[in-house]
């Protein structure tokens, strides 16, 4: 004989459990989706800053190779083509990084704004105001981003100054090698007598003409190289001035942030003092109320004993 049991209550409990689990998963997924843009902006800024730092390191290595090529160059070992190519590469890289500074500033701003929006949304979901820890974390993150950008600007400015010094050294080296080449290839020597054992006057004139044309072509190439290097020095000088201006602006921003942080701390201390005064006032009022109730209770007890008797 089969015994029947009503298990409807167990089914309802199972449905309620499944509904609660799905609701909790949905809320967790929503919170993770809300935090996703914040994390994406911060990660994008960090990746861009890391790539910017690696580009500065690569440019420094290229400047080091350029310095070695310039130091090895002499009258009989002309490496002008390699030096010119490497100079153009470094100059283009510095110009690109100079333009990337504005992108880095924009990414830093987006990262800070996303963190602010994320903290506001979390505070709204939890139905509470900003806590001191959250505000402190935001200020620390903002100061860290400012320090990262300021450090990269200083490194880029030093790299530009190093490249400028290298170009100035190259310009002086070209002029020195040109004067040495002119000294070693001079052919205007006085002849004391003509002899068949030596070259005749016609061959001598032809050699003078060939050497003169070669020297003229060499000097023209050197003059073009010097002019190109001087123009590159001028462009790098303009970039260096711009770097200096950006670093100065960043220093002013950091000083303003420090002053704002100090003002915020002062306001927090004032608020804490006011809360302590309010707490003291509440505590004193509580003691007074307890004393009043104690007197009333004592009076009622005393009156009750008197009436009963």
β-sheet strand percentage: under 5%
Task: Give the structural class.
Answer: mainly alpha
User: Any guess at the CATH architecture of the domain at 35-186 and 214-255?
Assistant: Up-down Bundle
**Broad shape:** elongated
Number of discrete helical segments: 4
The stretches of 5 or more residues where confidence is low (pLDDT under 50) are 27-32, 123-131, 187-199
- SSE order, one letter for each helix or strand: HHHH
Largest sheet: none
Overall average residue pLDDT: 70
Give me the count of strands: 0
CATH topology of the domain at 35-186 and 214-255: Methane Monooxygenase Hydroxylase, Chain G, domain 1
Give the distance, in angstroms, between the N- and C-terminal Cα atoms.
76 Å
Under the CATH scheme, which class of the domain at 35-186 and 214-255? Mainly Alpha
Estimated helix fraction = over 70%
| Radius of gyration using CA atoms only | 41 Å
Task: Set out the fold topology.
Layout (H helix, E strand, L loop, with lengths): L7 H65 L7 H46 L6 H53 L16 H108 L1
């Amino acid at each position: 004989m089969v015994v029947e049991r009503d298990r409807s209550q167990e089914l309802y409990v199972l449905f309620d459990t499944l509904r609660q689990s799905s609701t909790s998963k949905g809320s967790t997924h929503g919170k993770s989706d809300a935090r996703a843009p914040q994390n994406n902006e911060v990660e994008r800024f960090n990746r861009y800053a890391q790539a910017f730092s690696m580009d500065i390191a690569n440019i420094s290595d290229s400047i080091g190779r350029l310095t070695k090529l310039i130091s090895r160059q002499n009258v009989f070992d002309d490496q002008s083509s390699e030096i010119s190519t490497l100079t153009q590469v470094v100059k283009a890289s510095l110009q690109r990084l100079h333009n990337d500074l504005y992108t880095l500033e924009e990414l830093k701003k987006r990262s800070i704004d996303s963190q602010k929006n994320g903290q506001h949304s979390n505070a709204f979901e939890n139905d509470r105001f900003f806590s001191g820890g959250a505000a402190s974390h935001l200020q620390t993150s903002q100061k860290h981003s400012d320090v990262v950008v300021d450090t990269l600007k200083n490194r880029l400015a030093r790299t530009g100054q190093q490249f400028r010094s290298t170009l100035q050294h190259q310009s002086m080296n070209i002029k020195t090698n040109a004067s040495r080449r002119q000294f070693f290839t001079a052919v205007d020597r006085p002849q004391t007598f003509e002899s068949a054992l030596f070259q005749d006057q016609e061959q001598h004139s032809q050699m003078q003409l060939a050497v003169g044309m070669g020297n003229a072509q060499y000097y023209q190439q050197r003059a073009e190289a010097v002019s190109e290097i001087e123009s590159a020095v001028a462009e790098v000088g303009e970039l260096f001035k711009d770097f200096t201006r950006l670093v100065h602006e960043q220093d002013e921003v950091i000083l303003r942030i420090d002053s704002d942080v100090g003002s915020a701390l002062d306001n927090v201390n004032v608020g804490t003092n006011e809360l302590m005064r309010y707490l003291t006032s509440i505590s004193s009022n509580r003691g007074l109320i307890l004393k009043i109730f104690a007197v009333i209770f004592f009076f009622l007890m005393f009156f009750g004993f008197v009436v009963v008797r």
